[in-house]
Amino acid sequence: MANALQIANYLIAKASSSDGEHSKLSNLKLQKLLYYVQGFHTVLLKRPAFDDRMEAWMHGPVVPSAYHYYKAYGNGQIPPAMPLEEVDIDDQTAELVDEVFNVYAQHSAWHLRNLSHEEDPWMNRFDSEIGSSEIKIEDLEEFFPSLLE
């Protein structure tokens, strides 16, 4: 199993070799793509893509380990750390990440943020008075099948 930073490196490398909106990958957009990768991976491949904790933050689902790693880029584009072919993730995961990227990366970071705000995993876990709480794998298992219908 990969960790969230390996999946993030794959997404960033993929974005850097793409055109248009696909090529613009900020930390906000990266966080939403990691959320969709984790959700679809959990449902379609029957296992999480990574073990890193995911939380419901004000601007949607966030993987804190990846967020903190890339926060120095602010809302700017994150440059690739390595070429796509050097990122170490298994073929099944790469194929699924490619599909998620092709569907969701065409949207802006704010569109993805707003989309995630309409989905149960975030809505059921975010409380503006309490702060962030964990989005559990079970939350993804319950919700993501509805996106496949």
Mean pLDDT, to the nearest integer, reads: 94
The largest sheet, given as strand count, sense and whether it forms a barrel, is: 3 strands, antiparallel
Unreliable stretches (pLDDT < 50, length at least 5) are none
Kindly give the count of domains: 1
Instruction: List SSEs in N-to-C order.
Output: HHEEHHHHEH
Tally of individual helices: 7
Overall morphology: globular
Rounded to the nearest angstrom, the distance between the terminal CA atoms is 27 Å
Please tally the β strands and state the result. Answer: 3
Strand order of the largest sheet: 2-1-3
Radius of gyration: 14 Å
Structural class, by secondary structure, is mainly alpha
Helix content: 40-55%
Strand content: 5-15%
List the helices and strands and how they pair.
Elements: H1 4-16, H2 27-44, E1 54-57, E2 60-62, H3 64-70, H4 91-104, H5 109-116, H6 120-123, E3 133-135, H7 137-143
Helix pairs in contact: 1-4, 2-4, 2-5, 2-7
Summarize the structure.
With 149 residues, the protein is mainly alpha-helical. It has one domain.
